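Why does residue order matter? Because the sequence determines the fold. Keep that principle in mind as you read this record.
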Amino acid sequence: QVQLQESGPGLVKPSQTLSLTCTVSGGSITTSYYYWSWIRQPPGKGLERMGAIAYDGSTYYSPSLKSHTSISRDTSKNQFSLQLSSVTPEDTAVYYCHFVGISVGEKWGQGTQVTVSS
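Structure:
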């Protein structure tokens, strides 16, 4: 069973780059038709899908975040990562990594709180 674990700093200063990593166990990020996403939830707001990386390395980004979001992967470590540049306090949120596999289902990481503050 696929398991996901987010890691990264809990506090980032404004204008810096937020970097998070999702370590995957129980399945390979290169398995066909597996899709790996970053989703966040700001305080008091709904879930926002930021972007995804597919099993073949192709990426998708939310149009509203595309200009300062990058998702990459390290297949040797079975990890995928998020970089969000030029952060502001509005980027304060709980950040989740998420998996969906055709005919397999979906799985969420436990989430990690990131606060943007000086």
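The chain is about 0% helix and 55% strand.
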